[in-house]
Input
Amino acid sequence: MEILPFLLAPFVASLILTGIHAYLGVHVVERGVIFVDLALAQIAALGATVAIVIGMDPHGHGSYWISLAFTFLGAGIFAFARSSRGHIPQEAFIGIAYAVASATAILLMSKATGETEHLKDMLVGNILAVSWPEVRRTALLYGAIGIFHFLFRKKFLTISMNHAKAEQSGIHVRFWDFLFYASFGFVVTSSVAIAGVLLVFCYLIVPSVGAMLFADRIGPRLAIGWTMGTLVSALGCYLSVQLDTPTGATIVVTFGAILVLMFFMHLIVHRGRAAQGIEGAASAHRELEAAASSKASLG
Output
């Protein structure tokens, strides 16, 4: 009970991250751009690195806006790299962007050896250090982005679920792709500052993948993803304090363990349904045989 007040702000922050990232994860998985979050997060981290190298406070407003500007640049690249007629997969551009951004950040940090600890913070984060003002600002920003996506959900979902249909219906796909990645950039830039690159990636992908094991429709998938993210966040924060381990890494490992358990549950449920289906088919076959036999005897 003594650690609950200490964990409250990090837990609320993790709930906010779960809410927006589980939704965005549905789009990312459907678009087949699984590593776009890692790439945008690393580009945001590169912007923060540039701010540090030129002497800015890594937690100041100037550093944030530089990081956001870099993220918008990445959003533009990813939006214009997607084309139904292209021979190069969009994921290839995303991977290249991640590798180049990572290498550039390392090169810059090699010239500012006294600030290398910030590079580690951007990678693994420290969600336990989040303050209530940060939680409030993040909640307001993500709430505004959530409203934006709700208002234009039909366009975003059509592009994510059926890209060809979106183009045929006259939607300016590249423009709406840029708006999607730009809003995504706002989320990633703020999330990386709180939780680090790896944890942000897990919040985006793992709840969505876990939900897809049990549901096909958007509503149930969001409900499962939000529930999973909430439970894992609570468990991960608690284990981090009890085991005295880095919070971000602990939550990431907890996400992996819970996803494995969900996969085995999916196998059990799937086999049970398959067995019921086989039994039902066999029963129907026996009834047909009995009916045919009865008809033959009457004949």
